[in-house]
Design goal:
With 232 residues, this protein is an alpha+beta fold. The protein contains 6 helices and 14 strands.
Length: 232
């Protein structure tokens, strides 16, 4: 990599390369909450989040779900297809937790008969507001392919985590278009963007440990990675 142009995100740095359709994504030893209002720098977090994301991207590709993932090197840098990120975060919920509990009459732990797909504007200044399906359409974005993709991803990930004793409560996705206008799953797939509970409990193995100051996220993430690799 000789081109050093880069974009600094909250917990990842994206570098352009000499190949116009490829970027390098470096996972940093950093965690944030409250849209960046709370920050810490846990050692080893970047490496484990990169490894979990690598595993899950490869798992999804096995099921025909297209992602931006290409390769990983050496331990916390991922080579990915360059995409134009859609400014909409897609959230899939299997169990009520987090904002949906705060904003509705649903009780935490309520299981949904079918997954709920929600859309949020990707804009920290506006505090990532909830969007409707029609609002997304009015923004000039077709939400249906993202919804279809999110539900397919949910099916694979739910089973993957069930096999290691965890309930996939909810998770966030980002999608983007490559240079050929193909819709690809982008960003990362790690417990930073998920809620994972030990089956039959509400014991967290995700970033809620940091949000609620209830445990060591790096140790929890290492446990997940170990279980995923053992399952595979």
């Amino acid at each position: 990599m000789t081109n050093t142009e880069f974009f600094q995100g909250k917990v990842k740095t994206v570098f352009n390369t000499d190949e116009p359709d490829k970027v390098l994504i470096q996972y940093e030893d950093k965690v944030t909450a409250g849209n960046g209002r709370r920050v810490d720098f846990p050692e080893g977090k970047g490496k484990v989040c990169c490894s979990i994301s690598e595993f899950l991207f490869k798992e999804l590709e096995r099921y025909g779900i297209r992602t931006h993932y290409l390769d990983t090197f050496p331990v916390s840098i991922m080579s990915c297809k360059k995409v134009e990120i859609i400014p909409v975060e897609v959230v899939v919920r299997n169990v009520a937790a987090g904002s949906i509990v705060r904003q509705t009459t649903l009780e935490e732990g309520t299981k949904f008969d079918s997954p709920l797909v929600e859309y949020f504007l990707k804009d920290d200044v506006k505090d990532d507001p909830l969007l409707t399906y029609d609002r997304v359409r009015l923004m000039g974005i077709d939400p249906q392919p993202m919804k279809d993709g999110a539900l397919a991803i949910n099916t694979v990930l739910k089973e993957t985590f069930k096999n290691i004793g965890l309930t996939l409560v909810d998770f966030k996705l980002e999608f983007g278009y490559d240079s050929n206008k193909n819709l690809l799953l982008a960003d990362e797939l790690s417990p930073d963007g998920m809620r994972l509970w030990k089956i039959g409990t509400s014991e967290s193995y995700d970033k809620d440990l940091f949000r609620k100051q209830k445990g060591d996220i790096v140790e929890a993430y290492k446990y997940i990675l170990k279980q995923l690799r053992g399952y595979a």
